[in-house]
Protein 1
Amino acid sequence: MKFITPSLETERLLLKKGNALDYEKVYEYDFKKLRNINGEFESVKQDKKYIEGYETYADRIDGVFDWIIYLKNSNIPIANITANREDKINNAIELSFNTHPNYWRHGYTTEALICVLNFLFEYKYDNVFCGYSEGNIKSKNLINKFGFQPYKTIYNSWIKDGISITDYRTILTKDKFYNLYKKT
């Protein structure tokens, strides 16, 4: 089933469907190199070919919500949040997110995630999954801050520079989220 990504709003942010130029701005840097996996942390410009079609992803694939996050006062695109990969057994959907490094440590990602989680839990889901790879401490810390709990460890999930990487999948229940964030 095709989902229509709704526009959402917080005090400082607008969350809505983006266009190709917005994705280019958000993904200016290669996020694979910013995740600090295997100690690699570099600000390397993204090859624009890698993100071609990002703006139509939700239109082409069933069961996808895809938001670009904009600063409300300037309409500058700063981040992306995607919800996809429904899990009907757990009545869940999986979240992934990226924030342009110029906008790290301002609380924008937290603010946007609270808004999206509220939407997803009110929409129909009882659980939300989120994952991170070994070494990606920024994502791990943010996921833990939200109260996500360990769900599954995937050893040897993928290989980076000849080294096997472990992925961690976490889960957040609707009740836990509402207890922590009181439907803000």
Protein 2
Amino acid sequence: MEWSELDLQAALWLIPAERMKMNLPHVVPLAKQALEIFKALQPVTGSGSYVFPGRTSSRPMSDNSVNAALRYLGFDRETVTGHGFRATARTIPDEVLGFRVDLIEHQLAHAVRDTNGRVYNRTSFY
């Protein structure tokens, strides 16, 4: 994630089409808690391009860094992976919190299927 993608005033993360699998831009509304975290990070990493830089400021943090942090915290590979958080973000809002599945799928940038087909679905949820 790059700082240029964050609009902290509007509380939005604006992901350009070229970074998305479906080659469509994706807009993620940011919760106030996320905004607080980004604002706290800005003095630390805001002078570089990336919100979460890697070992050098010219590259972003890798997936391996996230997984290494999880191992450091005591989680084994069978219990949790960084990518596994996507499955959690899909399951808990549906099964525990009762959110609409189409909203969850849209937030995860999955193709939102509806009765008319996705070609007619141009809804933005922000």
Protein 3
Amino acid sequence: MNTYVEEYTSFMANVRHKSSNTVESYKRDVTQYITYLSESGIQDAAKATKTTILTYLMSLQKKGKATSTVSRTLASLRSFYLFMMQNGKVASNPTSNLEAPHVEKKMPQILSGSEVERLLEQPETTDNKGIRDKAMLELLYATGIRVSELINLDMNDINLPMSFIRCRGGKKERIIPIGNKAKEALEDYMNNVREYMIKNEDEKALFVNCGGQRLSRQGFWKLIKYYRNKAGIQAEMTPHTLRHSFAAHLLENGADLHSIQEMMGHADISSTQVYSRALNSKLKDVYAKAHPRA
């Protein structure tokens, strides 16, 4: 059955052109499912039935998996069996008509303006690493791009004279303006630091690690946690927190939802509308605390 998984992930990466993170997520979900089948005495994923899949999803719920995890797993299995059906390995898709559990969209974690300022002030621009980190954090907050998009930026994706970056997510590409602070930080890094960090002059990556290679998502996550602690920020932070804060602060200062949607690369406006709900929730809290008759 592992052959199925390898063929499927190769298809998603090379034919569907899904991002590496998406492919890894699908592969992980399907591999865990295949393991469950083997442990249940089913040696061929093509012989699984709708009941088999329902039983598997119920087992995830019994283990305490989040509703969002169960829902994502079903999406992965639906995609997997669609691939199997298109390649003649199954006659029908056993996941058809199965409904994913309803997932309530969580309010994104958003930093206040002062928290963002404290975070961005943390990198010490007295050495190469600090200058690089300052450029990354400023760019992330200035553009709202995903961390995966940040670390996948190449040198030719940056246009400093015109003050914009080109961001490529999967098959989509978008142009995003950058402000003066991010531009200054990028200029400092690109003109004075990067050449001393790379080991190979042919390296295309914009942001590299101390070994001269493209920075990894895990490497950036460690930086976020380090600077969060250094800034004394109590709120929980993920690599997406600055992205969420970018959108919420734009909205708070009068930007329209469709412009924010375009900059963030959301396919559906409903993904952007969550920031409106977060802002409304914040206003209600302010009202409740400040109004004498609240």
